[in-house]
Amino acid sequence: MADSPKLDPSAPIQFVINAAAGSSAAHTKREVIESVLRAEGRCGDLHFCTPVQLAAMARESAQRALSTHAAVVAVGGDGTLNTVAQAAHAAGCAMGVVPQGTFNYFARTHGIPADPAAATRLLLRSEPAPVQVACINDRVFLVNASLGLYPDLLEDRETYKARFGRSRWVAFVAACATLLRAQRRLRLHIEMGGGVRDVETLTLFVGNNRLQLQQFGAQPQDTLPGTPGHGSMAALMLRPIGTLSMIGLMLHGAMGRLGEAAGVDGFEFQHMVVRPTLAPGRSEVVVAFDGEVARMRAPIDIRVLDKPLYLLMPQLDQSAIDTSAGVTDVQLTRT
Q: What superfamily in CATH does domain 13-133+307-325 come from?
C-alpha cells in the first residue's frame, strides 16, 4: 500500500460542487463553505459545474490537488461523490466529502456530518486515511453496485422524486412499487474464487458499506470478522418469488431483517466475474453503482481494489464532533 498523501495546510482545497454557478443552491453552498474557510484561516477554490461538466471538473481538480499537496472535496450526493472518488483514486490525491444526499451511507460510515458547515469544519481538521473501494468493470464505487431489479428501482426512484420531492419516504414508496411489479429474471454464470455458480435471480446486489447492510439486516452470515470493508464485499441475490412473498420481503427489509427473508441468498467475496445470458445481438447489461445507472459490456467484473481511496475523515482520538449535525450513529472505526 502506498503512503498516505501529505497535505500542505497553506494549499487551497479544491471543492467540486455539483450545481450551476448562478443558482440559489450554489449561492448558499458558497456562503457556507467560504464562511467556514474564513473562520478557520484556510483557503479553497470552489468549482461549480453542471452534471455534464462534473467528470472533467473532478479530474482537473484532482490533478491540481495532487500537484499542490491539497485535497479535492466532493460537495453533493452519491453521484457527485462517486465521480470525484473516481478522479481522486486515479490521481492518488486525498479526498474530502461534504454530503448533500438523502441517505449518505458513505459519509455516515466514516463519521462525516450531514450538516455542510460541520462537514467542512471537520475535513479541515482531518487527515487522509485509506478506505476500501471497489470497481465494477472500470468504474470505482464506494457503497454498492448491482444488476437486475436494483437499477430498475433507482430509475423509478428518480421518477418519484421528480414528482413528489426528495425524501426517504418517497424513496421507500418507489421501492415498493418497483418490487411489486418485478418480472424480469436474470440468468447469470458467476465465476468466483475458483468456483462457478449458475443462478436465476431478480437482482444481484453487491455491498461495500457495512452501515447500509446493517440497516437492511442483510449482512451475510459467512463473513470474516470486520468485513465487508477489510478486503471483501457482500453479495445478495433475490431468487424469483411471487407477489405475496415479495410483500413479505418488503416487510423484512423495512424492519431491517432482510437477511432473514425467504429467497435471499447472501455471501462474501473479493472478486467476481458475472456472465449474464443476453438476448441475441446484445452485449451490454444495465448496471447501477452508487445511485448511477449505466450500460456496461459483459462480462461484468466486480472486485475489491488493492489501491485504497485516501479519505479525509475524523481521527480516532478526535472528541470534538458536532453530534447535533446529524451524526448520532457514527462508527469511528476505519474501514
A: Probable inorganic polyphosphate/atp-NAD kinase; domain 1 (3.40.50.10330)
